[in-house]
Amino acid sequence: MNIVARIKSACMRESSFFMALPAFIWQLIFLYVPLIFVIVASFMKVDEKLSLGALTLEHYASFTDPLYWVVIGRSLLLAMCAAIACGIMAYPVAYYIALRATRWKNVLLFFLILPFWINLLVQVYAWFFVLEKNGLVNTVLLKLGIIAEPLRLLNTPFAIFIVMLYCYLPFMAMPIYSILERFNQRLIEASLDLGATPWQTFMRVTLPMSLPGLKTGFFLVFVPSFGEFVIPVLTGGGKKLFVGSMISLYYLDAGDTQLGAAFTMLSGVVLLIVSLFLNWLFKRIVRVSAGGQ
């Protein structure tokens, strides 16, 4: 009887582990195992009979071509611009909903999370009616007499940037909102009572306290934007290669799994290094802002 009681007690103590076990198994099967296959495939050589051969580094030797680094650099630039632009646009929205909105707070929060309920393809294709030659933007500009002929907006880097900004904006706004919503507004009142201007209060109190949310939102936008595939292909017309489109080109069109796996690993390592540097930079900014308070 004591053994049964001990087993029940142990199960009760470790109940959180057993509840998390299905999620861990799911992640193991559909994340770590495929990742191991990609790593192994990037070092495997396939002969003419499509049989696996010895380990080789020849796939990585192909990346001495500057074209690959141009693609990676272009993707990093796009991801960085999207993350910075999302931060600039999302912060005022999150600030207003968290600290200023009262009666309409829940309504505004509902509209903020509404894009999460809509399929990404639907959101992207909706922008075709806005940016196409006879779309909303060109129609309005023509009616106002600002332009004489329709602008070429689709299949341009501008279209890619705008649609990515729209699609990833909630990923930036929600972490900032979650931090500001728990923010102690008495700190703002104390700063104003001590003679600080509203701008000084924002720069020395509100912004430093909300930097963790800004950092989280930045990486929630930056990391997936780096490997984005759907938006550059549909709104950019596939005219410019990015990391996501290059990987799909190797896997789906060229059928070169080994080279595609090697490029995936290379771009992943670059993303990891840049992300670690940006994380260090954020820590430095938080430390400096905390020291300046």
**Measured distance between first and last alpha carbons:** 61 Å
Number of helices: 14
Structural class: mainly alpha
CATH class of the largest domain: Mainly Alpha
Number of domains: 2
Instruction: Let me know the largest β-sheet.
Output: 2 strands, antiparallel
Topology:
Layout: H1 2-13, H2 15-43, E1 44-46, E2 52-55, H3 58-61, H4 66-100, H5 105-113, H6 120-126, H7 128-131, H8 136-144, H9 157-181, H10 186-193, H11 198-226, H12 230-236, H13 243-254, H14 257-291
Helix pairs in contact: 2-14, 4-9, 4-11, 9-11, 9-12, 10-11, 11-14, 13-14
Describe the protein's architecture and organization:
- There is one protein chain.
- This protein is mostly helical and 293 residues long.
- It has 2 domains: 17-56, no CATH class; 64-291, MetI-like (MetI-like fold, Orthogonal Bundle), CATH 1.10.3720.
- 77% of the residues lie in helices and 2% in strands.
- It is built from 14 helices and 2 strands; from the N terminus they run H-H-E-E-H-H-H-H-H-H-H-H-H-H-H-H.
- The protein has helices at residues 2-13, 15-43, 58-61, 66-100, 105-113, 120-126, 128-131, 136-144, 157-181, 186-193, 198-226, 230-236, 243-254, 257-291; strands spanning 44-46, 52-55.
- It has a two-stranded antiparallel ribbon.
- A hairpin with a 5-residue loop joins strand 1 (44-46) and strand 2 (52-55).
- The longest helix is centred in the N-terminal third of the chain and has 35 residues, at 66-100.
- It is globular and about 75 Å long.
